[in-house]
Every structure is written in structure tokens, then in C-alpha cells.
Amino acid sequence: MRLEKAWFLAHGAETPEELPQAGWREVRLPHQWTLEGLEAEVGWYRLPLPQGGPRRFLRAFGDYYQEAWVDGAYLGRHEGYFFPWLLELPPGGELLLRVSAPKEPLGVWPRFKRQIKGVLGQHDCRPGGTTERGQERGTGGLWGGVEVWVREEVALLGLTHRLLPRPGGWRLWVRLWVDAPRPFREEVALRILPENFSGEALERRLILEGEEGRGWQEVVWDLPGMPLWEVWERGFPHLFRLEAGLLGASLSVPLGFRTVELDGEGWLLLNGRRLFLRGTNIIPTQWLAGYSEALAQKDVALLKEANLNAVRVHAHVTHPAFYRACDQEGILVWQDFPLQWGYAPDEAFAQEALRQARAMVEVLGAHPSLYLWCAQNEPTHNRHTLGPLLSAALRAEDPTRPVREASDFREHSYPGWYWGHLRDFLALPGAPLPSEFGAQALPRAELLRRVLGEAAWPPRWEVYAYHNFQPHETFRVAGVEVGG
Question: What are φ and ψ of residue 324, in 5° steps?
Fold first, then answer.
């Protein structure tokens, strides 16, 4: 069950006992307080819990830390914004969630950050840019909402898969996340259903056995030849859904039959054929609670209108709707882990990054559009410490996709903007695969006035700077003249 509303209070209290009785207001979920104009670091959410059972589980997407209480009893803490907190709920009628996205102190931010948020925590395309104001308009809140899952004693909590070709067909490696209070032996029903075309469903029933505890249970399912998922320009992106049912609970994830690999010259082979990648970077939004299926479909339609067949989700994990739209429309996705520039060098941070990298694969790994994992964007002092560690973890979690240690400065081609002249493109900078290139461009005058108001003209340069205008590159390197 998805919870649609909550009582909300922006307050820096550490515990429920410190909270005032007054000031709470009802909000709709998903919710991020910055979208309401609040410059806060902590928000509290009070939610009535549906009854049922014998077991109930919380599934909450929050940015960045979450803590939970049920009827005053403390349940624990979660770190990480892009994967859900799955927590068993005890008996009780009221859930209290503390969600915090604190600004990191100067000195830690920007070179030694600890929050794994990528461009949502620091970037030259977010409010304040790389200045001391670069953490303003933060991304805290329950951006993906809250669900309460009612389950039987043996609970199905997660589903994903890996896909491998075999002679004459496919080998589907199904992974089911199961929580069991005892050793179990239960029937699981698997189904594969066409999603964006007409076709027959495939079904299989089997007995799943496991031990007490929470962990991954695995099933191998050999399949015949299937309609292929392809990029939009070369064919049709045949998309299926894989469903799993256990004791009345069911989950589903996308499934597309395709292979991706790099050949000896660095070319991408999609379904065994070379593909010339034409792509761009994208950050659909800083505030995921405001994104939707309709906006995702519009963004992907614009990618196709620009004659692109690939997109790089730049140094963050974005809203699930965007990946669904890419699956449906035949756009390939390069996925970055949310590391942007510099992070803490210690073992504790590396351990947390490993945990979250594995979580990223489990959350996104079922999407057929996703063709490559990348561990960092433009790393600085941590290039040769985090890069090898995280790329090894990504390969171990997902042996079916290419993995890159980093998207490095050397493959980001900006002649005529950050350096040099446009003619320097003749030397093919960033070859063989530039993962960034381009130049900044101001929007049309009407839009500029809408965003900046009276500061648009004559220019109030401090306001332009907050919105990441780059005067040196514009006037000195590119040689743009100021108009009148």
C-alpha cells in the first residue's frame, strides 16, 4: 500500500521528545521541502500505518538519512537516497520518520564529501554552483514516497535478474530477495509477459528452499529465442515484464533480451552488431519528487528528436520513470554511480560506497536500456583509490555489462570553451568516446527574464554567478561580445 499523505514539520530536533505539538501540516507524498521554498536540513513525517499481517515492511525512498519510530519505539537508521529502506515494522499505529539532508561543513565540502549524492550534492549546474552557496536548495525529503508492504511469514521483498545468451536461446538468472523467520520450502510462480507488443506469456512454477534470515535466493530459467530489445533506429525495443509471486505477494521488473559488450577496438556491440553511439549527458531534475512519467516521456522524446540513441545519467541516479521511458523507447543508458569530484579518503567512506554501488546494481540492473556502469565522474584525489575498488564491485555484481572506473577529465572535450579553439576538435580530443563536450549557452531573453527577473538586464553578475554563468569562458575563451 502506498501512503498518499503525511503530517510534516521542518524541525532540527534529534529525537521525537524534542518536537513541538504545533506547526505540523499535511503534505502529499512524494515530498521534498525545497519545492515548497523551505531552506531546511531536517524534516519530520508522521504517518498512520495500515494494519495487516502477519508481517509489515516499510519501503521508503528518502534523501539522504532516514530514522524511524513506531509508537515511540526507535527502529533504526538508513543512509542513501536512490535505493529504498526496507524495514520490518513492529505492531503499532503511527510511523514517525526523520529525514535529514544536512549541508556538509566547509572543509569536508567540497573536496572530502561524505554524502553519496553526486551532482545533487555538488555541481556546476546546481544552485550556487561551486561557490560556498553550492549546497543551497538541497534535495532532502521523501522524494519517492512511502509504501507499507503486508506479507506472509516468508516475505518476498525484492526481485531482479541477470541475462546471459546460450546456444539457441537465453539463460535467465532470477534473484529473489526473501526474508524468512525460519527455514522454508514454498512454491514460487514466475511469469514473463510482453509489455509493449502482443505475444504469449511464459510461466514456470517451482519450489524455493532457503534458510532463516534475509538474503537472495536464485533460480535459473532456460528460455528459447526471444524477440530482441533494440535501439529505436535499428529495430523495435521489445520489452517484457518478469513477475514473481510468493505466498500471495508479487513483484515485477522490466526484462529485455539483448547483449551488450565492447569489442577489442572499444566499439559497443549491441546484439552482436557495432553501434555508433550518439549521446548526451542528462540531469532531468535536482528534485526528484517533482518528476513524473509524463516528464520522462517528454525528455526521451526530445532525445529521439535530436537523433540520439544513448544518454548518460550524469553522476547521479535519477527518477525511476526516466529509466522506464528509455526501456520503452529504445534509448541506451550509461549509468554513473553518484560520485562527483572529491570524497573522503578513509576506509569507512570506501566501505559505504561499496554498499551503495551494489545497491545501485540491484535497483537498476533489470533495465534493458542500461548498457554500462561507471564508478565516478571527474574524480580528483580519489581517482586511483575508489575507482578500482568500485569498478571491481560493479563487475562482480553484474558480469553482463561493461564497467568503467571513471569518466575522466581527459575524455571531456571542451576546446573553444574551457581551453583552446573550436578547430582543436580536428585532433579528436577525448577519443575514442568523449563522455562530455559542448559549451554553455544562455537561454532566450524571455526565459532569462523569467528566471532572473530584474537581474537579467542590465546583468547583475552575482545573480548570474549563482545560476552558474561562466564569464571567463564566455567572454575570454569563446569571445562572445556583450550586447546592448
Answer: -60, -40
Q: Which residues contact 285 (CB under 8 A, 6 or more apart)?
A: 291, 295, 318, 319
Are 168 and 224 in contact by the 8 Å Cβ rule? The answer is: yes
Q: Let me know: does 156 contact 244? Beta carbons within 8 Å.
A: yes
Residues 140 and 168 in one domain: no
Strand partners, 184: 210
Q: 344: closest CA among 379, 391, 378? A: 379
Q: What is the CATH number of the domain that holds 326?
A: 3.20.20.80
Helices 383-397 & 347-364, crossing angle to 10 degrees?
A: 40
**Residue in 176, 179, 178 with CA at minimum distance from that of residue 160:** 176
Domain assignment of residue 165, yes or no: yes
CA distances from 224 to 171, 193, 200, 440 (A): 9, 14, 13, 49
Query: Domain containing 217: what range?
Result: 153-255
Tens of pLDDT, residue by residue over 172-185, are 999 999 999 999 99
**Residue 91 in grid coordinates:** 505492531
| Domains in the chain, number | 3
Over the stretch 188-235, which tens digit does the pLDDT of each residue have? 999 999 999 999 999 999 999 999 999 999 999 999 999 999 999 999
d(CA 8, CA 29): 10
What the block records as the C-alpha cell of 180 is: 524468512
d(CA 76, CA 81): 16
Specify the pTM: 0.96
